[in-house]
Amino acid sequence: MKLVLQLFFSFFKIGAFTFGAGYAMIPMIEKEVVEKKKWFEREDFYDRFTLAQSAPGPFSLNTAVFVGYKVKGVPGALAAVLGVVVPSFLIILLIAVYLGGYKDNPTVASAFKGIRPAVVALIAVPFLKILWRLGWWARIVALAVAAAICCLGFSPIYLLLAAAVIGIIVTMYGK
Fold this sequence. Notes:
By secondary structure, the chain is mainly α.
């Protein structure tokens, strides 16, 4: 039960203090589950991170499920998911109830303009950390996929499938 509560509160903290998309949570999740709690080795975390990205649904929930399940099975997965969801739910509820009239307030608008660049940085940091740890061929694939999606409008689904095939070929025949 103690481990289930630790999972809940770890993900509650992550959910409460992370702004932006699920990717902005990655540095906090990594620090919590790899460095602080030592529930994962770094490489295992990155493998699960990749899996969480590939699965349908919100990234933050997928990550919570994978981490919670590895640490404490189904109860751990449920605790981690609740931990990451409850803060957002409560914050949105409070905003809807109490701050709806402030949406046009110039100070509030300015605060959100200031938060946006920080969120971009929070999303970029895990990308750069993972990119740096990849081998040279994987870096080329990652940058090519990013360019194809960003600049050429390719579908990420087809590119993920192509990257998987390239990974299999390089692994089988590149040794």
